[in-house]
Fold:
Amino acid sequence: MEHTSTIAKSAKKERQTVLQYVRQNYLLYLFLLPAVLLTLIFKYVPMYGALIAFKDFSPMKGIWGSDWVGFEHFQSFLTSPNFYDIFMNTLKLSFYGLVLGFPIPILLALMLNQIRRQRVKKNLQLVLYAPNFISVVVITGMLFIFLSPNGMVNTLITLIMDKPVSFMTEPEYFRSVYILSGIWQAAGWSSIIYVAALANVDPQLHDAATIDGASLLQRIWHIDLPTLKPVMAVLFILAAGGIMAIGFEKAYLMQTDMNIPSSEILPTYVYKVGLQAGDYAYSTAIGLFNSVINLILLVFVNFVVKRLNEGEGLY
Structure:
């Protein structure tokens, strides 16, 4: 009885401490309030619409008035003839983009960190960050212009091979063009967080290592990379958790009748089935399936990273 009373007093004291902290820092919570409200309104409230995936949805009847069909739409998608191709296209595009694109910002940050002249460093950063501010529509237009049969790239290829390459129409080139252009656009901007992390490295560590005879690669391996390790772990988990959440706009804009076998992915398929064909329940089921796969990947990758990173992960 006495032990229970002690626990109750301890819990009460802890609650009072928390309330006291909140009262002392209420301005910080007020700053946080808009972000919380936006998250609730635009992320959690729309989850109610996921019920459409389990119903024979009719706009006239509404969500609650439509008949319940359970997992019928999921079964239809998983057994459809084009499920494997669409799923693998999405997985390959995301996986290759992650494997090829994740190390590039780290390498850029390490190279920028070696530049001692601040003016040169800032100019390079400006050049590297600029592509991130170009809209997806403009990027896609640039790709069609540069990679067209009469474009700049094919002009050079024709001088060597005597014939142009159909980059934007042949299915085998779609993935390479999509991934490489994405890396070019996002790598510089993604390196910002690594550059910021490297700014916290004590320069005396590099000076001491240089005096001891450590080479540049040894200093990067033993000083810079351990500093980046926690940041790399978190960003890799987030990137791997969203491996199926590939962007719709760029894939749809780059899509042509000729490259459909490689360019048809889950987001573009959901758009065509849901908004163009009007099958809202079926498209919602596909979108929910995609989200569940993302969640499973996030939990799995976080578990693996925690095992490999001495217990440090996303949560």
